[in-house]
Amino acid sequence: MTTTWDLTFVYKGYDDPQINEDLEKANQLAEDLAKYRNKLATLSSSEFTSFLQQHEKIGTYLVQCGSYGSLLFSQETTNDNFKALFAKIQQKNVEIGNKLIWINLEINKMNPETFVKFLDDPKMANYHHYLQVLRLREPYQLSESVEQIINQKALVSASAWVKFYEEYTADFKFEVELEGEKKILSQGDIRPKFRDANPITRENVFKTYYQKYIDDSIAISHCYNNIWKDHGQNVDLRKYPSSMTIAHIRNQTDEDIVETMMSVVKKNYTLIQEYYKTKAKLMGQGTSIKGSDLYAPITKVTKYSWKEAEEAVLGAYNDFDTEIGQMAQILFDKDLIDSEIRQGKRTGAFCAGLTPALMPVIHMSFDGTSDGVATLAHEMGHALHDMFSARKQTLFNYHPPLVVAETASVFGEQILTSKLLKTMNDEDSKLTLLVNQLEDAIGTISRQTMYIFFEKECHLKGAKQTLSFQEMSDIWDKHVKEAYGDSVNFLPEQSANWASIPHFLFTRYYCYAYSFGMLFVLGLYQKYLEEGSLFIPKLKSILEAGGSQFPIDLAASVGLDIRKEEFWQAGFDYLNGLLAEFKEIVEKRS
Ligand SMILES: [Zn+2]
To answer: Could you list the residue range(s) of the whole structural domain that residue 448 is in?
Structure first.
């Protein structure tokens, strides 16, 4: 029996009057803060600290209400009461948020001496990192009137192209032959079929899917070209030192670190090539696999009951460390996991860490597959991260920045994998597990970095000239060839793969955060394999730091240097170990 969650520790229900009271309190506090407007620079450090504490308190009310609304909605997206509550809270959030906009602007406008005075004052230690992050964009900010014009114009330029792409491609219909019958599929229906068990279906699906983007090449090329040009203008206007600066600010990292990480990923493209050559062999395809078989399922799936999933995950965390095991247990004891599959429930899985004072909750739809068990271990990791962070951090420092946000979740998945590999006695399940782990790592690390190499070249060339659909496909093919070598025989239609990746449009250089995040954790995991239980207190201190440090300092605090190639290589050493196990089983079979 799967589980449903009990959210009454947040509010009693959608009609709990406390929700309105909390929103009102937040509103009142936001209005009270207005008396400090144009005066922040004149405050003493203690006054500025209590000002930020008030600001944080408003955030606490808003996050608590907002998360509750969103959780109820995720639980039952078709419930009109939940929908109405969520919409009302969102509206209130915007209204109150607008009353606070001046704060960050004013902090950013402080003259450097005043700002540094606050920053260096030990009384403000809790907000040190928060203030530092706030100021990262300051050197690239333009005058207020120019910023306003850019904001207004964005709605009808870059954002308009993104919106057009979203609506236009969301409406795509794909006519595809499935088991001898012509079917019309939507985006949501066709994408899972990349992993269909039938090879002919997979091939038809891949061909049809990318051909659609080729048929619509005029509209699609315009979207991408305008993004390349828009970003080029931004880089010039704001005098960013590089095309990628904005992404590094967002991720609280820098060019050198990211370049080092990416060069190590490139050196390890052998992982992709070796993996697919071995998968080709396993599938009886010689030394290179067909492009439509990239995600082909390998073996029959083992089924798990929820109870077995719970035991596997708790067992793995407990074996790792009893304190961590006990913390994970609380999520089950207090009914904080919604794992049931229900009509109207939001799809996907997430862990919501609300505020440091409240327990995190997990939302997922457990389907009984080994993937489902891995998802539980993953989301449980996020919950543990939140619980550790809550010990030391306040709201502004509670959540880690994107690139280190997966630390506990991916670490937890590896703990589970290693336990399962040790205890599983049937080879088919082992093979499935290794395939899942390796394909996940290749997809998250190697492929996402390849995306960035493609994106970088497009920005470079596309800022000055208009690139044709074919030219962008050629750039794509070049980077794909470099990554996959001759381990995959791609279908000609797959050269248009880039056109179906919305990340290039939504956020500049978004995808390296995936590579960075996962490789960062695998680097830590490899350290754990080397140091054993001595590493566990270090891991806990990283988790307790939450979002209070830059990734480089977080690693340095446990003696690791992310500027060094060796740090990133350690992650690949771990993956090469999994690859060797995979190869060994395949060799035995052939
Ligand atoms: Zn995650």
So the answer is: 158-272+430-512
